[in-house]
Write a structure and sequence with these properties.
Length: 316
């Protein structure tokens, strides 16, 4: 792969008028003039589309509503022409030489399918240099930049995909709506096809993501729903029953916040309702028949978790 390999940049936006001009301006200063940039706007109610339209040579795709991260980037992926498909959040600012570092890394490793970038908080502290899934409950953890082990995932905030990898893995799973864990799912799917996953520390961006974790119940439900979906799709029956579900029971017992337990009860209810569709996704990826006994057992285990969460939430 030559150093001047074609890169397409895909930026999903939603109400990003505070960020998008700085993002695009940083790309203008760090990329060649003819680089392909596609902005997919998810029905912004602010001036985001108008700001994007002021920048020359950018393809703007406008949706009438917020379709979520996966659907938006899928639109861009299907239109992009590059050998490297680079997904970038609207609230990022590129550092010098990021593109050359990205191209160089892909050139050095023919089996590299997905490459993440080093993300920094606005104050310069490290935000992301790759991540792993913690056993047995698959909570995600950002690793330090000197981490030497294999990565399970890199964040979708700055996420490069080799064209050949994309051809095998396909589009992002829109079931992770509106967000969370879709990038992890994509990395796991890429590994199924034998592709390597890495983070290039010399490709750097400042990311203006909130530095504080919200305690909003809707956020807990969304995060818990996507984590559980990921485990049900990619975990084996034996692992789910022997390790994952017991670890969920321990989480429920240890987290004594009533609102969190109520949120998780909602997560388990939705997982039970959507189990058949989730099982079909597992079947497609792993070529395993989904038996009715499997559905009944997993359904039973999920409802037991819901009962446990509600019991602890409202114990006297």
């Amino acid at each position: 792969m030559p150093q001047d390999v074609a890169v397409s940049i895909i930026i999903p936006t939603w109400n990003g008028e505070r960020f998008i001009a700085n993002c695009l301006e940083s790309l203008r200063h760090t990329c060649p003039e003819n680089i392909e940039i596609l902005v997919v706007d998810n029905g912004s109610l602010d001036a985001t589309p108008q700001i994007v339209a002021k920048f020359p040579n950018i393809c703007l795709i406008s949706n009438v509503a917020n379709r979520g991260f996966s659907a938006a980037v899928n639109q861009g992926l299907q239109l992009a022409h590059g050998d490297i498909l680079f997904l970038l959040n609207q609230d990022t600012v590129a550092h010098p030489d990021w593109l050359q570092a990205l191209q160089r890394r892909f050139t050095q490793d023919a089996q590299l399918g997905i490459l993440g970038c080093k993300l920094l908080y606005p104050d310069g502290r490290l935000q992301h240099a790759g991540g792993r899934l913690l056993e047995p409950n698959w909570m995600s953890e950002h690793v330090p930049e000197d981490f030497a082990g294999p990565l399970d995932f890199v964040t979708g905030a700055a996420f490069a995909i080799r064209r050949e990898c994309f051809s095998q893995v396909g589009l992002f799973d829109t079931g992770y709506y509106p967000a969370y864990y879709e990038d992890v799912d994509y990395c796991l799917r890429a590994r199924l096809h034998g592709w390597n996953i890495a983070c290039e520390l010399n490709a750097q961006f400042t990311h203006f993501e909130s530095q504080s974790q919200t305690t909003d119940m809707n956020q807990w439900i969304m995060h818990g729903t996507q984590r559980l979906r990921l485990a049900l799709i990619h975990g084996s029956t034996e692992w789910l029953i022997a390790r994952f579900f017991p670890s969920e029971q321990e989480l429920i017992k240890q987290n004594k916040l009533r609102e969190w337990r109520v949120a998780m009860a909602n997560v388990y209810l939705m997982a039970a309702i959507q189990l058949r569709a989730t099982a079909k996704r597992h079947q497609v990826l792993y070529s395993q028949d989904v038996r009715i006994n499997w559905l009944l057992e997993i359904h039973h285990q999920i409802l037991l978790l819901r009962q446990l969460a509600l019991g602890y939430a409202f114990e006297t």
